[in-house]
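Late entry, written up from scratch paper. The run itself happened at the end of the previous shift, but nothing got recorded in the book at the time, so transcribing now.
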Amino acid sequence: MTTALIADDERLLREQLRARLAEVWPELEIVAEAKNGAEAVELVERLHPDLVFLDIRMPVMNGIEAARAIAQLPVDEDDDGAEGAKPWRGCEIVFITAYDQYAIEAFEQDVVDYVLKPAERDRLQLTVDRVRKRLVHRADADEAPDARGMQGLLQKLAEKMSPGAVPRLRWIQATVGTSIQMIPAEDVLFFISDEKYTRVQTASIEALIRKPIKELVSELDAEMFWQIHRSTLVNARAIAGVTRDMRGRQLVAVRGHPEKLEVSRSYAGLFKGM
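Output as recorded:
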């Protein structure tokens, strides 16, 4: 059974969407409702639904921020879960919005879908049909959602909602030994985070910053920097190739550096056919 979560700060709209979904997709199980984006992220992490309906404008954490946080959640890297339980490969996102100009771009890119307020049966049926096809395709291919497409789309939507509020990060102020250096973002080959620091690697410099990957994802140009792991961003221009090791893991080779970067299951779809 496909499971879903509804996140909207307006109770009546949550109830209306639930009722409309019961009409067009009676097999869908609504496992929870959230009143804000932060609550939605917490529930997704705990319940692992297949589908999340996110209102774009919510308090505490809006839908764009929540979608970005949900995309950062770890998926099941192997199938050794509870007996009979399917591994979680992430969830599809459907935005709930009264702002058509934001939603159309998402719809046309075919990364996520949208529902306009108030939810109308015919439009919701179209959304459901598209989502069901994506879920079937992902299940057959054992894939996570389109991670790179989602990153780029969320960045564009955030800019449309608050023009100029999310400037591209052009310089990285990092610690190199005992000094602070300003490193052009385009010179960075990759970023790798641990619990406290993020390593900034160029062809000639290894530096440290305190900014976590989840913040860098929202600040860097998504067309240039691809997330390939919860803890890793790589400059797409620096990718020399992708190979597989004996365990079947994808490894990214980087021009100008000998280190190979592991691609997690969540982002394996970036390099389809490898």
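The CA atoms of residues 194 and 222 lie 21 Å apart.
(Scratch paper discarded after transcription.)
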